[in-house]
From TrEMBL:
Domain spans labelled C-CAP/cofactor C-like: 329-460
Listed name of the protein: TBCC domain-containing protein 1
InterPro entries: C-CAP_CF_C-like (IPR017901), CAP/MinC_C (IPR016098), CAP_C_sf (IPR036223), CARP_motif (IPR006599), TBCC1 (IPR039589), Tubulin-bd_cofactor_C_dom (IPR012945)
Localization annotation: Cytoplasm, Cytoskeleton, Microtubule organizing center, Centrosome; Cytoplasm, Cytoskeleton, Spindle pole
Similarity section: Belongs to the TBCC family.
Lineage, uppermost ranks: Eukaryota, Metazoa, Chordata, Craniata, Vertebrata
Length: 582
């Protein structure tokens, strides 16, 4: 008989929460089991059921041999998974921005207080507990069990020695990646729901053992046949797994489905102890786990096709854009875009709001997605410009050449890029992963009328802004010479060429002084030039001849710089305006 429930692995923890790089050696199962026991034993010291930042820092630096920056990166990356109220995000941004030194910032992070009423916990309905706790005073802690699961799933990007020996996987900058068919790949595991399912199935016992209480474990931190899994542990597992009652479309967290009467006997639930027999629970989970109906595979197979792009004549490339947003849970909405070629694509659309966006193999194009977004991945693109609305979680750029990304986002990471430029406003350090060459960072330098409204929707402020302070996550990827800050003399503002309704009329937060000074000096030169021309006393014919000369030089410049392509793709204007407004 068919299982009365369908379960699947959620996409978002892997897509937003997993760092797209092999994890440190000590984040493996052995050390995580030790950490799980350590936190339970030291519950009274701020380790359980919530883990404070000072305690995690001590575990990470002392036991797991991570640097302090990496410890904070994982702690804060876990926070990116949560959909907290934007005002609370802005509150913490204000706290960070007010800190005048690293020591003061560390003191703010280290304040530990009682759980906030909105922090969630082990109550009756922790369907989406606010596992990263931020009180009004900036006191930080995370849900311990969910954080352990978060650290565990970092292993999805671990390089398999066996697979690399038989040629399926190798961590090179240009590792062969999949087509948009969703087939297995080594460099796209964060998006690949089939990889997520395979990971959980192959590591299910390790995952359950992380959640056991110490008395349910042997001396070597392994389970026994009589081990029981507490209800609170199954609540934590809802961080990774959700599902439906068969034939129902209502998505429910795992712990609710586990307590449904027809499931209690097969999953070994005891009403007396309010716990589950581990062996039965594991067997039940395996029998019910299936492919995520809202993942990338389903989107590509059965999603709604979007006619946003033009099909360019004379090329075999065919633009493909699909979404799954009709009838899916908020956190699962996605838009996948491939092979947009030699054109301008501009959208501000409800389909994009809060969506995970994947942009794949787009070349020689200008792409404007002017809506508040959840996350964006840009892969294998060349010679293109991407102007994005504010991104609540992360932007990851992989295996791209000569692209320009203009974005306000919570976090940026990049790997295997060459000659790419990033105009940023971000409260976190840009993450430079392995394989990058000639990266250029510059301040965010544009606006559109609804930009500040969109920033407020996703909880992003203008301060702190760490666009110029990248973090080299893997030292073996090279030294700090892989990136540079754009010289002010090379800096120009960027104009978004679409009319929209709204109140934003200038770049949020302004520009750094050196860049603003360079623009002012350039503007002054233009004014002097205009004055010189005006005072030259040219005749009507001379003015006409001079104008033609300037226009010809301008046209040559458009062709040489490639800007002619962008202007041509904006014609006719009515089409561009409709696209931007659609």
């Amino acid at each position: 008989a068919a299982a009365p429930v369908r379960l699947w692995v959620k996409t978002e923890p892997f897509l937003v929460g997993v760092l797209p790089v092999p994890p440190p050696a000590r984040l493996g199962p052995h050390y995580l089991r030790k950490m799980a026991v350590y936190t339970r034993v030291r519950a009274a010291e701020g380790c359980f059921p919530r883990l404070s930042w000072p305690r995690w820092r001590r575990i990470a630096c002392g036991k797991l041999q991570l640097g302090r920056d990496m410890a904070w990166l994982y702690f804060e990356l876990f926070h990116s998974l949560l959909r907290r109220d934007p005002p609370r995000c802005l509150e913490w941004a204000e706290t960070e921005a007010a800190c005048v030194s690293a020591d003061e910032l560390e003191r703010e992070r280290s304040k530990v207080g009682a759980p906030h009423p909105d922090a969630g916990g082990r109550g009756e309905s922790p369907a989406h507990p606010n596992a990263f706790f931020l009180s009004p005073l900036g006191k930080l802690s995370v849900d311990t069990l969910q954080f352990l699961l978060f650290l565990c799933i970092q292993q999805v990007n671990k390089v398999s020695l066996r697979r690399s020996l038989i040629g399926e996987e190798w961590p090179s900058p240009r590792t062969k990646s999949p087509s948009l068919s969703g087939k297995s790949s080594s460099d796209n595991k964060n998006w690949n729901d089939q990889e997520h399912l395979a990971f959980v199935q192959s590591h299910l016992l390790d995952i359950l053992e992380l959640l056991l209480e110490p008395e349910q474990l042997t001396a070597s931190s392994h389970s026994t046949h009589s081990s029981m899994v507490s209800y609170e542990a199954v609540c934590a597992l809802s961080f990774l797994i959700e599902g439906t009652v068969s034939k129902s479309r209502t998505v429910r967290p795992l712990h609710e489905l586990a307590l449904w009467q027809p499931c209690q006997e097969p999953n070994g639930y005891s009403k007396l102890s309010r716990a589950f027999c581990l062996a039965k629970l594991e067997s039940w989970l395996r029998s019910c786990l299936t492919t995520n109906p809202f993942g990338m595979s389903a989107c590509l197979r059965a999603g709604k096709k979007l006619a946003w792009a033009q099909q360019v004549e004379g090329t075999t490339r065919r633009a493909k854009i699909a979404c799954n947003t009709r009838g899916v849970p908020e956190e699962s909405s996605m838009v996948i875009m491939s092979q947009v070629y030699k054109q301008t694509l501009a959208k501000s659309s409800d389909t994009l709001v809060g969506a995970h966006v994947r942009i794949h193999r787009c070349n020689e194009s200008f792409i404007y997605l002017l809506s508040p977004l959840r996350s964006v991945t840009i892969e294998k693109c060349r010679n293109s410009t991407f102007v994005l609305g504010p991104v609540q979680a992360s932007v990851h750029v992989h295996s791209c050449d000569t692209v320009r990304v203009i974005v306000i986002c919570h976090r940026l990471s990049l790997s295997a890029t060459t000659g790419c430029t990033f105009h940023l406003l971000t409260p976190t350090q840009p993450l430079i992963l392995p394989g990058n060459q000639a990266v250029s960072f510059a301040p965010f330098h544009t606006h559109y009328p609804t930009l500040e409204d969109h920033m407020a929707q996703v909880g992003l402020a203008t301060l702190p802004n760490r666009w110029d302070d990248p973090m080299l996550v893997c030292r073996e990827s090279g030294d700090r010479s892989v990136f540079s800050l754009m010289p002010p003399s090379d800096f120009y503002t960027f104009v978004i060429p679409f009319e929209m309704e709204g109140d934003t009329t200038e770049t949020p937060g302004g520009l750094p002084q050196a860049y603003q000074k360079a623009l002012s000096q350039r503007e002054q030169k233009v004014q002097i030039w205009q004055k010189t021309v005006k005072e030259a006393g040219l005749t009507k014919d001379q003015r006409k001849q001079f104008q033609m000369l300037v226009e010809n030089k301008f046209y040559e410049w458009l062709v040489q710089t490639g800007n002619r392509l962008q202007l041509d793709s904006l014609v006719p204007p009515a089409v561009g305006s409709k696209q931007a407004a659609g």
